[in-house]
Amino acid sequence: MPAVLVHGVPETPAVWDPVRSLLSRDDVVTVQLPGFGCPQPDGFGATKEEYVAWLVGELERLASQGPIDLVGHDWGGGFVVRVVSTRPDLVRSWVTDAIGLGHDEFEWHEFAKIWQTPGAGEDFFAEQLAQSSEERAGVFELMGVPHDHAVAIAGAIDQTMVDCILDLYRSAIDVGKEWAPDFHDIPAPGLALDPTDDPFVAAYKVAATAEKAGAGVAPLPGLGHWWMLQDPGKGAGVLEEFWGSLS
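RESULT FIELD:
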């Protein structure tokens, strides 16, 4: 019965290491999005639907090990929203901190709007890649990421990842309107994580969208977007409490 953890942008599976080390279960799997710290496969266009299809394939492969407890952060959480909307049969349970992507009024944050703009997105990341990892890490530290983790995240960003980020965000300008109609009454038990200091998700979307999907809500007071790095003990505890509640 594996727990499958899906990272987001601009990250690699290493973002889950602190939480994973504190989980009592020994069946935790961290998958790696194509192009994020690994090659982008030939013919893979890095659109949101291609990433969802890729994740479905990974879950189908892992399903032989038993029912899956699926957990996603950031875009990984967005892919969770879509997977449980279209293939709820693949999971025993699901957790996301990006449930707003299933709300028809979802609006992207300002960074995303830059990345979705041809030219501006390329210029943004060209400036980022021209800096050292230490310099880039400062942005993540301002959002609560501990220094060593901030440097690791910044250091993993390369041109392959940048190209995938731009293609992904440009495929998802209207993601809420496109995904919301299917995201309701999900039969598998779900949990929406709500870090109160996350600047990228509107709080009202968490409650409203969770209710629509039939999911619970777990507030994470005082934590931000990278809650799993700020307080891995809290994150691991919330996950294990949810899994323990499943019959």
